[in-house]
Amino acid sequence: MIAIRPAEPVDLTAIAALDARLTGQAKAAYWQDMLARYAGGPPERHFLVAETAKGALAGFIAGEVRAWEFGQPPAGWVFAIQVDPKLRLKGTGSALFEALAARFKAQGVTRVRTLVDRKDHLILSFFRAQGMTAGPSLQLDKAL
């Protein structure tokens, strides 16, 4: 059984450890900043964690409602999601996504968006399973 709740500062160590294990990059300062800005922050910002019945971190998701960049109407944006590999394919990621989407919907937005690396087939498959498809924008990029 997984419980979804808002992230708290005490979750920092577990969030940073899970992310480092999955990405191979330790970035505790980044997650500390994200928690400070999103956990208990303005109502358009959300940082949620999933925990097991034993209280262990199963995963997390973060996003916010953003509006009017490049003329786009308000939408919920997912900018981070991680699930412990031992708990994948058990509904943890979907539960996190649905909880965040419900918060976005309660704020009056009708679209959820995200940005993914086209080579990351795992996350692409996950978001497609949530019903997401290509959106109206095209990312442009330039090396500096």
In a few lines, what is going on in this structure?
The protein is α+β, with helices and mostly antiparallel strands. The chain has helices spanning 12-23, 28-38, 92-106, 121-129; strands spanning 2-6, 45-52, 57-66, 75-83, 112-114. It has a 5-stranded mixed β-sheet, sandwiched between helices.
What structural keywords apply?
single chain; 144 residues; alpha+beta; Aminopeptidase; 5-stranded mixed beta sheet; 4 helices; 5 strands; 33% helix
Describe the structure.
There is one protein chain. The chain is 33% helix and 24% strand. By secondary structure, it is of the alpha+beta class. It has a single domain, classed as 3-Layer(aba) Sandwich (Aminopeptidase). The chain has a five-stranded mixed β-sheet, with helices on both faces. The longest helix is centred in the last third of the chain and has 15 residues, at 92-106. The mean pLDDT is 92.
